[in-house]
Amino acid sequence: HLPGVQRARFGKLHAELVVTLAGMTGDEVVLRAIAAAGYRATSGAGHGSYAPLPGYPAGADVKVVTNDGSPVGPLVKLRVAGKYTVLDVYAVWCGPCQLIDARLRELCAARRNIAVRRLNVVDFDTPLAGQLGPAFTALPHLIVFTPSGRRFEFEGYDLKRLDQALAAK
């Protein structure tokens, strides 16, 4: 508890700490406490961001389909002929999504028969989330189409299911 702070919450969508101060308490109280904890902070909205993820290997078949939770139309149309197509539904604030992303980067470095289509759902109330329907209840959410068109859909950090889908005929 920090004297002068009435309430604090982390806004995951914009990576910002929102602090409500009491009376005459100034921003410097919070900024000093954050600096003492070893972090950097700036006063005012609109300064938050997440660290960018590492890039995919050169030559990897990876495309961002939506970065703002917009609907994308029929998912089957994102399928890439002759490849395993992974529709990676994620959010930048989702830790397990970052772990799946790391695994997909490894797979793309080792295999050329994988296409990754990234869909940033942003949050659970965006148009894309609505398009995904009632099966969409958690992140990460992966949809894998095999080259023959079989569809696998699962949620969570489940590398075994991902590997099984990428080995299926």
Which tags fit this structure?
single chain; 169 residues; two-stranded antiparallel ribbon; 25% strand; elongated
Protein architecture, described:
This protein is of the alpha/beta class and 169 residues long. The protein has four helices and seven strands; from the N terminus they run ββαββαβαββα. The chain has helices spanning 27-36, 95-110, 127-132, 159-165, and strands at 5-11, 16-21, 61-66, 84-90, 114-120, 141-145, 151-155. The strands form two sheets. It has a five-stranded mixed sheet, with helices on one face. A two-stranded antiparallel ribbon has the order 1-2. The longest helix is centred in the middle third of the chain and has 16 residues, at 95-110.
Spans of at least 5 consecutive residues with low confidence: none
Chain-averaged pLDDT: 93
Oligomer: single chain
Determine the structural class based on helices, strands and strand pairing: alpha/beta
Strand content: 25-35%
Described by strand count, sense and barrel closure, the largest sheet is: 5 strands, mixed
Helix share bin: 10-25%
Shape: elongated
Instruction: Enumerate how many helices there are, as a single number.
Output: 4
Distance between the termini: 56 Å
